[in-house]
Automatic annotation (TrEMBL):
Enzyme class: transferase
Coiled coil residues, start to end: none
Gene3D superfamilies xref list: 3.20.20.210
Keyword Plastid: no
InterPro entries assigned: Cbl-indep_Met_Synth_N, Cobalamin-indep_Met_synthase, Met_Synth_C/arc, UROD/MetE-like_sf
Cofactor(s) recorded in Swiss-Prot or TrEMBL: Zn(2+)
Protein name as it appears in the record: 5-methyltetrahydropteroyltriglutamate--homocysteine methyltransferase
Binding site for L-methionine: I441, G442, S443, E494, D609
Residues spanning the signal sequence: none
Similarity field: Belongs to the vitamin-B12 independent methionine synthase family.
Biological function: Catalyzes the transfer of a methyl group from 5-methyltetrahydrofolate to homocysteine resulting in methionine formation.
Length: 764
């Protein structure tokens, strides 16, 4: 038999983001349930047909989801948290979808007010899944028919048997969270397994041949109990679902120490990610038992670059040599959920740039072409060779001066002139701030009129002069407000920025932007990451115009706002032809030059935001130190071009620092602002235990809701902070930027915050 080509999952949104629009219309009551279902059906059919046309032998179904595939599994296995019981009786008959959306988004209707389930990042992607909630005596039952209906629908549309996709039982449990003490969620396997098996049996009765079970945890660090859970789960499934062909899909990392475990599970096929972890092929091949097949994830499901056929073929040939063609399959490395839909819609990218890329639709064509070449038709190979070689040699990508400068970065470049105590003295003499100085994180409410104006300006409907003068007005008004409120260190409000990464990307060399390159982030939300395609440099000043204008409006210190190199990297599609650390260093040099230019223009305080440092942490613990080393060094390269009396701030809007505190301290920012209000300053303890030496602004109020915090509660938080850290090091600020808030609550909250700082100065 010939090698099979297959896909693990297709983007759900539709190339025009049809699903987003349909869901949001449904939530707003503008369309009914049947209209929502029609859109969903049409999208799925279109995607099935498209995959069939691209030559896929096994086409996934149930990869489609109205919100999230983990939430789908939670509903399938009936793990609905108790608090949604009233929803079930509240919503109309046959309204599984409303219960589902209630779990995803919360339910505030007819006198009920039920919170949504928690959401968190899907491994190291920017996709967020809904976290299953487990009780000690958690029971499961088959509740939803979605997967069974999807199977029938796909079979009907395709005329061939589709491959249903489910999250594997072990990964499903590990993705969840214990909501009670006294048990570990992996122990729930005994309750889940019978239900899980009955779902598989039902699919088998419907005629399913292959079923794909996603088990990405097989590529993570596993405890003994978790490994045992894998052995037990798949032994049971094999026993009870004889004849069903199971494919375990493992992606985002290599199997490493779990290779033997995975190889010996009684399944028909393992899918591995050879883009992320190519070396695992050699480790795994000798371990595979005689009947197990291997699916090679050779086409990158996480990025937008054209596949290098020559390289992929090397892996394919190696695998076929050992296993024989009938035991090898080829596929993208992971679900295509993480790539944009269709490159052919990018009519504004020039031909050369387009010739370097492939989006979801094109990636399947690549899988097909790889098979063609393998079978002896060499015609796609030559074109691909040319495209790969052209990209490798393009002078749009390679800037010798940038490469030379990056290679020449020294340890000295990554260090401020003097150590923090000396800098603190100089800065305190220069700025003469009171104890508990007040500031904000940068952005102020970005109201619809500003967004609309920007949209009109981009379309050329508004002149540069009109646009800039409106921005100046908004900036000046915000500065006056901050003066009135009595804030000590002001910001300009970031009105000229659409997004903190895109804004810089648009001004840096080496970045490209797509028109339709949307990727699902959570639910109906999509992001459109910039593409870093070449060596990064800064042809001109980026933020000086607005920062200088802002400083000219006030005598108080104006804090300039830059986005840090790691965050710019993390929130973009990055080049795959050099290490991420190198790209980050290039960005760092550009940000460093901008900081120096700001300093030369008389700006004394500069904030370099790095909210994404933590999310860049590698999935395997053993790799984390190396990542943090280069990430922190890149930040320091960006921050260390300025004089000792220039105060560098950084900001991180999350809360877990325990395991990385030493690295955070090594960033050596003069001031760090972090999110703490929701944890009641608890997470400051990590800083206290570490004896964090530099200045720190623990957020005193949560900006994620319109609620206006009282003065007293903020004073109390400051008292707590003062117990943990030296007084002279403490700042007062909100948790994060105010971009998504409205003006009235912003004004009221900051007014109270300044009062709280004043009270703290007297009291503490
Ligand atoms: N300066 C940015 C702002 O205020 C920081 C946002 C962030 O860290 N997420 O919006
Ligand atoms: Zn933030």
């Amino acid at each position: 038999m010939r090698m099979l080509k297959h896909n693990l999952g297709y983007p759900r949104m539709g190339a025009q983001r049809q699903l987003k629009k349909a869901c949001e219309s449904y939530w707003q009551g503008r369309i009914g349930r049947s209209e929502l279902f029609v859109t969903a059906k049409r999208l799925q059919e279109e995607h099935w047909q498209l995959q069939q046309a691209a030559g896929m032998d096994l086409i996934p179904c149930n990869d489609f989801s109205f919100y999230d595939q983990v939430l789908d599994a939670t509903l399938l296995f009936g793990a609905v948290p108790d608090r949604y019981a009233p929803v079930v009786t509240d919503v109309a008959e046959n309204a599984e979808i409303d219960l589902y959306f209630a779990m995803a988004r919360g339910y505030q209707q007819r006198g009920l007010d039920i919170t949504a389930m928690e959401m968190t990042k899907w491994f190291d992607t920017n996709y967020h899944y809904i976290v299953p909630e487990f009780k000690k005596d958690q029971q499961f039952r088959l509740l939803s028919n979605k997967v069974f209906n999807a199977f029938d629908a796909a079979k009907h549309t395709l005329g061939v048997t589709p491959k249903p996709v489910l999250i594997g039982p072990v990964s499903y449990l590990l993705l969840g969270k214990e909501k009670e003490t006294g048990f570990r969620r992996i122990e729930l396997l005994k309750n889940l397994l019978p239900v899980y098996i009955s779902a598989l049996q039902k699919l088998q009765e419907q005629g399913a041949v292959w079923v794909q079970l996603d088990e990405p945890f097989l590529a993570m660090d596993l405890s003994e109990a978790e490994k045992e859970a894998y052995r037990h789960a798949y032994a049971e499934i094999a026993k009870r679902c004889k004849g069903l062909k199971l494919m375990l899909a493992i992606y985002f990392e290599g199997l490493q120490d779990n290779a033997a475990l995975a190889a010996n599970l009684p399944v028909c096929c393992l899918h591995i990610d050879l883009v992320r972890a190519p070396l695992q092929l050699d480790e795994l091949l000798p371990l595979l038992p005689p009947k197990t097949s291997l699916s090679l994830g050779v086409v990158d499901g996480r990025n937008i670059w054209k596949n290098d056929y020559e390289l992929s073929l090397k892996y394919i040939r190696k695998a076929v040599e050992v296993l024989g063609e009938d035991r090898v399959m080829i596929a993208p490395s992971c679900s295509l959920l993480h790539t944009p839909a269709d490159l052919s819609l990018e009519t504004e990218l020039d031909d050369e740039m387009r010739s370097w890329m492939a989006f979801a639709k094109q990636k399947l064509e690549e899988v097909n072409a790889l098979n063609e070449i393998f079978q002896g038709n060499n015609s796609p190979l030559e074109l691909n060779r040319q495209a790969i070689a052209a990209r490798a040699a393009s002078d749009r990508i390679h800037k010798p001066a940038v490469k030379a400068r990056t290679a020449g970065i020294t340890e000295k470049d990554a260090q401020r002139e003097s150590a923090f105590p000396h800098r603190q003295q100089l800065q305190s003499a220069r700025f003469n701030l009171p104890l508990f100085p007040t500031t904000t994180i940068g952005s102020f409410p970005q109201t619809d009129d500003i967004r609309q104006l920007r949209a009109q300006w981009r379309k050329g409907q508004v002149t540069n002069e009109q646009y800039e003068s409106a921005l100046e007005q908004a900036t000046e008004k915000t500065i006056r407000l901050q003066e009135e409120l009595g804030l000590d260190v002001l910001v300009h409000g970031e009105f000229e920025r659409n997004d903190m990464v895109e804004y810089f990307g648009e001004m840096l060399e080496g970045f490209a932007f797509t028109k339709n390159g949307w990727v699902q982030s959570y639910g109906s939300r999509c992001v459109k990451p910039p593409v870093i395609y070449g060596d990064v440099s800064r042809p001109a000043d980026m933020t000086l115009r607005w920062t200088k204008f802002a400083q000219s409006c006030t005598k108080r210190p104006m804090k300039a706002m830059l986005t840090g190199p790691v965050t710019i990297l993390q929130w973009s599609f990055v080049r795959n032809d050099q290490p991420r650390s190198l790209t980050t260093d290039q960005i760092a040099l550009a940000i460093r030059d901008e900081a120096v230019a700001l300093e030369n223009a008389g700006i004394g305080i500069i904030q370099i935001d790095e909210p994404a440092i933590r999310e860049g942490l590698p999935l395997r613990k053993a790799d984390r130190d190396a990542y943090l080393q280069w990430a922190v060094r890149s930040f320091r390269v960006a921050a260390s071009g300025v004089r000792d009396d220039t105060q560098v701030h950084t900001h991180m809007c999350y809360s877990e620092f325990n395991d990385i505190i030493a690295h955070i301290a090594a960033m050596d920012a003069d001031v760090i602002t972090i999110e703490t209000s929701r944890s009641q300053m608890e997470l400051l303890e990590a800083f206290a235990d570490f004896k964090y030496p530099n200045e720190i602004g623990p957020g005193v109020y949560d900006i994620h809701s319109p609620r206006v915090p009282g003065v007293e509660e903020m004073v109390r938080l400051l008292e707590k902070a003062a117990e943990l850290l030296p007084l002279r090091n403490l700042w007062v600020n909100p948790d994060c930027g105010l971009k998504t808030r409205k003006w009235p609550e912003t004004r009221a909250a900051l007014e109270n915050m300044v009062l709280a700082a004043r009270a703290a100065r007297e009291k503490i």
